[in-house]
TrEMBL record:
<feature type="transmembrane region" description="Helical">
    <location>
        <begin position="92"/>
        <end position="113"/>
    </location>
</feature>
<feature type="transmembrane region" description="Helical">
    <location>
        <begin position="164"/>
        <end position="190"/>
    </location>
</feature>
<protein>
    <submittedName>
        <fullName>EpsG family protein</fullName>
    </submittedName>
</protein>
<feature type="transmembrane region" description="Helical">
    <location>
        <begin position="274"/>
        <end position="295"/>
    </location>
</feature>
<dbReference type="InterPro" id="IPR049458">
    <property type="entry name" value="EpsG-like"/>
</dbReference>
<keyword id="KW-0812">Transmembrane</keyword>
<feature type="transmembrane region" description="Helical">
    <location>
        <begin position="202"/>
        <end position="222"/>
    </location>
</feature>
<keyword id="KW-0472">Membrane</keyword>
<dbReference type="Pfam" id="PF14897">
    <property type="entry name" value="EpsG"/>
</dbReference>
<keyword id="KW-1133">Transmembrane helix</keyword>
<feature type="transmembrane region" description="Helical">
    <location>
        <begin position="242"/>
        <end position="262"/>
    </location>
</feature>
<feature type="transmembrane region" description="Helical">
    <location>
        <begin position="301"/>
        <end position="320"/>
    </location>
</feature>
<feature type="transmembrane region" description="Helical">
    <location>
        <begin position="327"/>
        <end position="346"/>
    </location>
</feature>
<feature type="transmembrane region" description="Helical">
    <location>
        <begin position="125"/>
        <end position="152"/>
    </location>
</feature>
<feature type="transmembrane region" description="Helical">
    <location>
        <begin position="36"/>
        <end position="54"/>
    </location>
</feature>
<feature type="transmembrane region" description="Helical">
    <location>
        <begin position="12"/>
        <end position="29"/>
    </location>
</feature>
Amino acid sequence: MSNSILLYPESTLVYVVVVAACCLVAYLGEGHESRSYPAIIILILAVFVGLRSIDVGIDTGHFYNHFNSPLVFGVEPGFLWLMRFVSSLGATYSYVLIIAAAITYSCFVMRLWELRDKLSFPLGVFVLCSLYLPYTMNTFRQFIVLAVLFWASRYFFRREYAKYCVIVFACMLIHKTSIIALALLALIPFQLKELKGNARTLALLFSLSMPLLIVVAGFFLLNSGALSSYLKYLIEEETGRTGLMALIKLLFIFLAFSLSRGGGYRRSLLPDTISRFIAAIAIFGICLEPLNVISPYLDRAALYFSVYQIAFFAILYKNAPGRSREFIFAGIFVICAYALYASLASNGHGIMPYSMASPLILFGSEA
């Protein structure tokens, strides 16, 4: 298989510059209260991802055909409404991509910004760009809901479970697999000790009803045929990928915790409840990543949990004591840099070569 990095060195350089620019802005913004820093990062990524041509990303051209078709089947109504709304304004398909990218990166970056007292904001941005930038150019519809749900975790950690559930159900209008995010409600019993009275009872009911809710909703979706477009991947796609990267991540996490406990260090890598919850969710997701051995598409279900590694890795580095800090930074950098390299080299997301749509397309010209 040819290496796309060697075939398209200019595109590789563009990706590296974009990631580096975002990390630099994040580094300059650390320690400041101004939201102009995350705003600049969001702008860079929204323009870069949103103004890509229809040849960048496998799904990009697919939904371009939907945008120009009067009859569309197999697309959730929320995303269809977005395309129809943009079309009704006489705008071009690029506006759909820009809106999708703006929502995605606004939610991801602003949630990291909210958690900056618990994590390293620059490293969080680096992990986000290295692990998931290629995905947002291909499976961008799912990444809209992943980003929204990542941001909505603020309500879960505040124990505002009803708000979190409403957002999950709203996200199902864009991607039905969002229902998987309800699994976080299984963590509610671990928060109960800090709740009292009616709040405790309501939280317990939410937690106990979660498995039943997922089963009932899944049964309904399966029988309605609504998930047929996803289930086909289980039988049509070739398998053969391994979970080696997941094993490397788990080994790194084990070594990080081991080193942080040695040398007489007493500082915890996970000093508070929210950090521990994020760690548990992320590690659970990483453990699910080897599902791609069964099907290349099954690990997309794991994304609803593994996406929290964006914050988890940045938390590890922020709280690392002594010399373990250097090891943790090096480990995170190698893992994420290799992930970006692998995505660009294999071109599995169809993102190489990168090309930007003509600015004229924003004004209704296809030139």
